[in-house]
Specification:
alpha+beta; about 20% helix
Length: about 200
Protein backbone atom coordinates (compact mmCIF):
# COMPACT_ATOMS: atom_id res chain seq x y z
CA UNK A 1 0.00 0.00 0.00
CA UNK A 2 1.49 3.31 -1.05
CA UNK A 3 1.43 6.08 1.48
CA UNK A 4 -1.02 8.82 0.38
CA UNK A 5 0.62 11.61 -1.57
CA UNK A 6 0.21 14.06 1.31
CA UNK A 7 2.98 12.16 3.13
CA UNK A 8 5.46 12.51 0.28
CA UNK A 9 7.87 15.19 -0.71
CA UNK A 10 7.67 16.50 -3.41
CA UNK A 11 6.04 14.01 -5.84
CA UNK A 12 3.10 11.59 -5.40
CA UNK A 13 5.17 8.41 -5.27
CA UNK A 14 8.89 9.15 -5.29
CA UNK A 15 11.45 11.47 -3.78
CA UNK A 16 14.60 12.66 -5.40
CA UNK A 17 17.00 13.01 -2.50
CA UNK A 18 20.09 14.61 -3.86
CA UNK A 19 23.69 15.02 -2.90
CA UNK A 20 26.73 15.89 -4.96
CA UNK A 21 27.87 12.28 -4.93
CA UNK A 22 24.66 10.24 -5.08
CA UNK A 23 20.96 10.54 -5.75
CA UNK A 24 18.42 8.31 -4.03
CA UNK A 25 15.09 7.69 -5.76
CA UNK A 26 13.00 6.04 -3.06
CA UNK A 27 9.33 5.13 -2.98
CA UNK A 28 7.64 5.37 0.40
CA UNK A 29 4.99 2.83 1.40
CA UNK A 30 3.58 1.08 4.42
CA UNK A 31 5.28 -2.14 5.35
CA UNK A 32 3.56 -5.52 5.23
CA UNK A 33 4.26 -8.72 7.14
CA UNK A 34 6.26 -9.99 4.16
CA UNK A 35 8.75 -7.14 4.71
CA UNK A 36 9.60 -8.18 8.28
CA UNK A 37 12.83 -10.06 7.49
CA UNK A 38 14.19 -7.29 5.27
CA UNK A 39 13.29 -4.62 7.84
CA UNK A 40 15.06 -6.57 10.60
CA UNK A 41 18.18 -6.86 8.43
CA UNK A 42 18.06 -3.16 7.59
CA UNK A 43 17.65 -2.07 11.21
CA UNK A 44 20.44 -4.33 12.43
CA UNK A 45 22.80 -3.01 9.73
CA UNK A 46 21.93 0.59 10.68
CA UNK A 47 22.08 0.20 14.47
CA UNK A 48 24.66 -2.58 14.97
CA UNK A 49 26.73 -2.73 11.76
CA UNK A 50 29.99 -4.53 11.17
CA UNK A 51 33.01 -2.17 11.19
CA UNK A 52 33.21 -2.11 7.39
CA UNK A 53 29.53 -1.13 7.05
CA UNK A 54 29.26 1.68 9.57
CA UNK A 55 27.58 4.96 8.66
CA UNK A 56 27.73 8.30 10.47
CA UNK A 57 25.93 7.03 13.57
CA UNK A 58 25.45 3.61 15.16
CA UNK A 59 25.47 1.90 18.56
CA UNK A 60 27.76 -1.08 17.92
CA UNK A 61 30.21 0.11 20.58
CA UNK A 62 27.41 0.60 23.13
CA UNK A 63 25.24 -2.50 22.75
CA UNK A 64 26.00 -6.07 21.65
CA UNK A 65 23.66 -8.40 19.80
CA UNK A 66 20.93 -7.71 17.29
CA UNK A 67 18.63 -4.71 17.62
CA UNK A 68 15.55 -6.61 16.40
CA UNK A 69 14.39 -9.80 14.71
CA UNK A 70 11.70 -10.48 12.11
CA UNK A 71 9.15 -11.66 14.68
CA UNK A 72 9.57 -8.45 16.67
CA UNK A 73 9.20 -6.38 13.50
CA UNK A 74 5.97 -8.18 12.56
CA UNK A 75 4.52 -7.45 16.02
CA UNK A 76 4.89 -3.70 15.40
CA UNK A 77 2.31 -3.79 12.60
CA UNK A 78 -1.01 -3.46 14.41
CA UNK A 79 -4.11 -1.27 14.60
CA UNK A 80 -2.15 1.08 16.87
CA UNK A 81 1.09 1.06 14.91
CA UNK A 82 2.50 1.47 11.44
CA UNK A 83 5.84 0.95 9.75
CA UNK A 84 6.87 3.03 6.78
CA UNK A 85 9.57 1.78 4.45
CA UNK A 86 11.57 3.52 1.74
CA UNK A 87 12.24 1.30 -1.25
CA UNK A 88 14.79 1.68 -4.00
CA UNK A 89 13.91 -0.90 -6.61
CA UNK A 90 13.39 -4.19 -4.76
CA UNK A 91 15.54 -3.14 -1.81
CA UNK A 92 14.42 -1.56 1.44
CA UNK A 93 16.73 1.34 2.19
CA UNK A 94 14.97 2.99 5.14
CA UNK A 95 12.22 2.54 7.71
CA UNK A 96 10.49 4.20 10.64
CA UNK A 97 7.93 2.99 13.19
CA UNK A 98 4.93 5.00 14.41
CA UNK A 99 2.85 3.86 17.40
CA UNK A 100 -0.15 5.48 19.05
CA UNK A 101 0.60 6.59 22.63
CA UNK A 102 -2.23 9.06 23.22
CA UNK A 103 -2.18 11.99 23.13
CA UNK A 104 1.15 11.54 21.36
CA UNK A 105 2.63 9.06 18.94
CA UNK A 106 5.88 7.27 19.61
CA UNK A 107 8.30 7.42 16.67
CA UNK A 108 11.16 4.97 16.68
CA UNK A 109 13.36 2.58 14.76
CA UNK A 110 14.30 5.28 12.26
CA UNK A 111 16.92 3.56 10.13
CA UNK A 112 18.61 3.96 6.76
CA UNK A 113 21.18 1.80 5.07
CA UNK A 114 24.63 2.84 6.35
CA UNK A 115 25.85 3.58 2.81
CA UNK A 116 22.96 6.03 2.33
CA UNK A 117 23.20 7.84 5.66
CA UNK A 118 23.72 11.59 5.80
CA UNK A 119 21.98 12.13 2.44
CA UNK A 120 18.56 13.34 3.66
CA UNK A 121 16.63 10.07 3.62
CA UNK A 122 16.25 9.88 7.42
CA UNK A 123 14.95 13.44 7.54
CA UNK A 124 12.32 12.62 4.88
CA UNK A 125 11.26 9.46 6.73
CA UNK A 126 10.93 11.34 10.00
CA UNK A 127 8.76 14.02 8.37
CA UNK A 128 6.54 11.35 6.79
CA UNK A 129 6.20 9.58 10.15
CA UNK A 130 5.12 12.81 11.84
CA UNK A 131 2.56 13.46 9.08
CA UNK A 132 1.13 9.96 9.44
CA UNK A 133 1.00 10.27 13.24
CA UNK A 134 -1.17 13.37 12.92
CA UNK A 135 -3.43 12.31 10.05
CA UNK A 136 -4.09 8.71 11.11
CA UNK A 137 -3.75 8.78 14.89
CA UNK A 138 -4.54 12.43 15.69
CA UNK A 139 -1.25 12.90 17.54
CA UNK A 140 -0.79 16.12 19.51
CA UNK A 141 2.95 15.62 19.34
CA UNK A 142 5.66 12.99 19.14
CA UNK A 143 7.80 11.04 21.58
CA UNK A 144 11.00 9.14 20.99
CA UNK A 145 13.92 7.62 22.86
CA UNK A 146 17.68 7.97 22.38
CA UNK A 147 20.53 6.18 24.14
CA UNK A 148 22.35 8.41 26.60
CA UNK A 149 25.74 7.87 24.97
CA UNK A 150 24.73 9.04 21.48
CA UNK A 151 25.16 12.83 21.62
CA UNK A 152 25.35 13.11 17.81
CA UNK A 153 21.93 11.48 17.46
CA UNK A 154 20.42 13.59 20.24
CA UNK A 155 21.68 16.71 18.45
CA UNK A 156 20.14 15.47 15.18
CA UNK A 157 16.69 15.23 16.77
CA UNK A 158 17.05 18.50 18.64
CA UNK A 159 17.68 20.25 15.32
CA UNK A 160 14.30 18.88 14.24
CA UNK A 161 12.37 20.28 17.18
CA UNK A 162 12.64 17.46 19.74
CA UNK A 163 13.50 18.31 23.34
CA UNK A 164 14.55 16.23 26.34
CA UNK A 165 11.77 15.73 28.87
CA UNK A 166 14.19 14.99 31.71
CA UNK A 167 12.83 11.44 32.03
CA UNK A 168 15.32 8.58 31.82
CA UNK A 169 14.80 4.83 31.77
CA UNK A 170 17.08 1.81 32.21
CA UNK A 171 18.18 0.07 29.03
CA UNK A 172 15.44 -2.53 28.29
CA UNK A 173 17.55 -5.68 28.47
CA UNK A 174 14.42 -7.80 28.92
CA UNK A 175 13.01 -6.65 25.54
CA UNK A 176 15.42 -8.74 23.48
CA UNK A 177 17.12 -5.74 21.86
CA UNK A 178 20.72 -6.51 22.81
CA UNK A 179 22.89 -6.17 25.90
CA UNK A 180 24.48 -2.86 26.92
CA UNK A 181 28.27 -2.85 27.07
CA UNK A 182 28.24 0.02 29.58
CA UNK A 183 26.40 -0.46 32.86
CA UNK A 184 25.69 3.29 32.95
CA UNK A 185 23.87 3.30 29.60
CA UNK A 186 20.28 4.49 29.84
CA UNK A 187 17.49 5.75 27.63
CA UNK A 188 16.56 9.43 27.30
CA UNK A 189 13.02 10.52 26.47
CA UNK A 190 12.35 13.27 23.93
CA UNK A 191 9.16 15.05 22.95
CA UNK A 192 8.08 17.38 20.15
CA UNK A 193 4.73 19.17 20.46
CA UNK A 194 2.57 19.38 17.35
CA UNK A 195 3.02 23.17 17.18
CA UNK A 196 6.78 22.65 16.84
CA UNK A 197 6.37 21.12 13.39
CA UNK A 198 8.70 22.77 10.88
Amino acid sequence: MLVPSSFLLPAPATWALGSLQYTINAMLREATQSDAEQIANLVNKAYRPEPSERGWTHESELVSGHRINAKQVASLMSKNGSLLVACEGNSLVGCVHIERAEPYCYIGMLATMPSLQNKGLGKKLLAAAEDLAISRYGAHGFKMSVLSSRPELLAYYERRGYRLTGATHPYPTEAGVGQPLDAELHVLELIKPHHALA
